Amino acid sequence: MDYPQLKEASVESKRVLLRVDLDVPIENGEVKDASRLESFIPTVKWLLEKQASQVFLAGHMGRFEEGKESLSTKELLPVLEKLLEEKIAFGEEKKDGVRVNLLENLRATSAEEENDSEFAKKLASLADIYVNEAFASAHRKHASIVGIPKIIPGYLGLRFADEVKNLGRVWENPKHPVMILLSGVKEDKLDYLEDLKSLADRVLVAGRLPLFLGDEYEDAKVLVARLLQDHEDITIHSMEAFEREIAGAGTIVVSGPMGKYEEEGHRQGTKRVLAAVADSSAFKIAGGGDTEAAITLFGLTDKFDWISTGGGAMLEFLTMKTLPGLEVLVVSSPKS
Question: What's the pTM value of the predicted model, to 2 decimals?
Answer without folding.
Answer: 0.93
